[in-house]
Amino acid sequence: MRPLIVYGLIASLLTGVAPTLAGQTAPASAPADAPESAIASRDAWLYKGSDITPDPAWHFGTLKNGLRYAVRKNGVPPGQISVRVRIDAGSLYEQDSERGFAHLIEHLSFRGSKYVPDGEAKRIWQRMGTTFGSDTNAQTTTTQTVFKLDLPSATPAGIDESLKIMSGMVSAPNITPEALNAERPAVLAEQREQPGAQVRFLNALNATLFAGQPLADRSPIGNIKTLEAATADSVRAFHDRWYRPSRVLVSIAGDADPATIEPIIAKYFGGWQGIGPAPSDPDFGTPDPKQPTAATIVEPSLPTRITLAVVRPWHFNNDTILFNQARLVDQVALAVINRRLEARARAGGSYIAAQAALDDPSRSANVTIVSILPVGNDWEAALRDVRSVIAAAQEHAPTQAEIDRELADLEVSFRTSVETARAEAGSKEADDMVQALDIRETTTAPDTILKVYHDAVAKKMFNPAAELASTKRVFQGTATRALLSLQAPDDGATAKLTTALTAKVSAVGKSRVQGAVSFAKLPAPGGKPATIVSREKVLRFGPDMDLTSVAYSNGAKLMVYSTNAEDNRIYVRVRFGGGYNALPADKTTPAWAAEMALVEGGIGKLRQGDLDQMTAGRRIGLDFDIEDDAFSLSAQTSPADFADQMRLLAAQLAAPGWDPNPVLRAKSVALAGYAGLSASPGGVLQRDLERLLRDGDQRWGSPSRAQIEALTPQSFRALWEPLMKSGPVEVQVFGDVPAELAIATVGKTIGALPPRPATPAPPPPVRFPAHNTTPVVLTHDGPDNQAAAVIAWPTGSGVEGLTDSRRLDVLASIFSDRLFDQLRSQAGASYSPNVSSTWPVGLPGGGRMVAIGQVTPENVPLFFRLSRSIAADLVANPISDDELKRTIGPMLQSIMRQSTGNQFWMLQLTGASYDPRRIDALARLYHDVSTMTAADLQATARKYLRPEADWTMDVVPKAAAK
Question: Is 347 exposed, middle or buried (CB count within 10 Å of its CB: 0-12, 13-18, 19+)?
Answer without folding.
Answer: exposed
